[in-house]
Design brief:
The chain is α/β, with parallel strands linked by helices. The protein is built from 17 helices and nine strands. The protein has helices at about 5-20, 25-40, 45-55, 60-70, 80-85, 100-110, 120-130, 135-140, 150-160, 185-195, 225-240, 265-275, 285-295, 300, 320-335, 355-360, 370-380, and strands at about 170-175, 180-185, 205-210, 215-220, 245-250, 255, 305-310, 335-340, 365. Helix 11 packs across helix 12 and helix 13 (about 285-295) runs parallel beside helix 15 (about 320-335). It is elongated.
Length: about 400
């Protein structure tokens, strides 16, 4: 399909991307081919052709549905109608859209194309600093799931400025120190041999202190997708600040993304990590993923007092007994296991799901991870000495 209709289709795909749908050039080409196959004569055929190529999850249907009906009525008049239409959006089934749908669509429709002259980093920093204190405070407490695209960008920038200072771990290895508290007889005799035995000067050593190893296991299943995309920026900043960070993601299988996060640019790092994953936004097999980690990676990355950050909502689809056994094994292999659960944002949260009940007794600590404030509290907790297990 060529001409003005093809251009309009590409603009529609760009609109969906601005509204938060993960669509790219490949999806745009597939949409153009699908629209060419069914033709633009029947609105219903065009709807389902684009739906089949641009929607991958049930949660995305609400955004696609409203964006389609608004965009294909009259794209030129939409900007004037946003104030009247968006607050009263209704889904086809009679339900109401998610609370952040109107804001995201409004932001997407009102988006202006960038100018030819881009802003410099200094100008962007000045714009960021111009936000009021009340706006910053509201942003820090807001749930990642309800943020608009602009707020998500601001949250990611705040995460890039967040610094974690883990307490070092005392190693079993020794290092030479004239003021050390342990006598080194072997080094003393070697030094005496070099001087012919005429001078016997005692040598001393002390234990080394080394950075604490950090291991991140992040759930990227469908229920965790929006949080996972944001938290990968946090994990990237963590890997840039510390040398001993290992990162893994899992849905139905386990994927090591440690090397992908070594890119200095956070967008390149997250893109490389996403490309290495084949089960993004799929099912959830937490127990199987932990089992694979315990068998293939635990001995490599969990030595020397490692701290494990397990990021998941605990909504397991497999046998919960496997999850309980593997979580207990993981806890025994590390120094401290922290479960970061976005479901803790609900005041009435209760461990009703089988996966949550299986994980809860096999972790050392459970914390929320749904906002900037929760990440700041996590950073503050990790800077303190790790308590001893009972």
């Amino acid at each position: 399909m060529a001409g003005q209709i093809g251009v309009t289709l590409l603009n529609f795909v760009r609109l969906l991307r601005r509204a938060g749908l993960p669509v790219g050039p490949a999806h745009a080409l597939a949409a153009v081919e699908a629209a060419a196959a069914v033709g633009p004569e029947r609105r219903e055929d065009l709807y389902w052709a684009l739906h089949a190529t641009l929607v991958r999850k049930r949660e995305e249907t609400a955004i696609f549905d409203q964006a389609f009906h608004l965009f294909w009525r009259n794209p030129r008049l939409l900007e004037k109608m946003m104030g009247l239409l968006l607050p009263n959006l209704q889904l086809e089934g009679g339900g109401t859209p998610p609370p952040d749908l109107a804001a995201r669509l409004a932001e997407a429709f009102s988006h202006q194309p960038p100018r030819e002259t881009e802003t410099t980093p200094e100008e962007r920093e000045e714009i960021s600093a111009s936000l009021s204190a009340s706006t910053q405070e509201d942003l820090r407490a807001r749930d990642f799931e309800t943020m608009t695209l602009a707020e998500l960008d601001a949250a990611k920038a705040a995460m890039a400025r967040l610094r974690l200072s883990f307490p070092p771990t005392r190693s079993r290895r020794m290092r030479r120190d004239p003021r050390g508290g342990r006598f080194d007889g072997r080094a003393t005799l070697r030094a005496a041999a070099r001087s012919g035995g005429d001078l016997l000067l005692p040598k001393f050593t002390r234990r080394r202190w080394q950075p604490t190893p950090i291991v991140v296991l992040c759930d990227i299943s469908g229920s965790m997708e929006r949080y996972a995309r944001v938290l990968l920026h946090f994990v990237h900043g963590l890997s840039q600040d510390h040398d001993r960070v290992s990162a893994f993601v899992f849905g139905t299988r386990l994927t090591n993304i440690t090397r992908a996060l070594q890119h200095r640019d956070v967008d390149e790092a997250v893109t490389a990590a996403a490309h290495s994953v084949v089960d993004w936004s799929g099912g959830t097999r937490i127990g199987a993923a932990l089992e694979r980690f315990n068998k293939d990676w635990a001995r490599r990355v969990l030595g020397q007092g490692a701290i494990v950050l397990l990021i998941t909502d605990g909504l397991e689809r497999d046998d919960p007994s496997l999850l309980a056994a593997e979580a207990a094994r993981l806890r025994r292999s590390c120094r401290w296991l922290i479960w970061l659960n976005p479901l803790l944002r609900y005041e009435g949260f209760a461990p009703r799901a089988q996966g949550v009940r299986a994980l809860l007794p096999n972790t050392d600590e459970m914390r929320p991870v749904h906002s900037l404030d929760s990440l700041a509290a996590l950073a503050d907790a990790l800077t303190r000495p790790i308590p001893t297990r009972r």
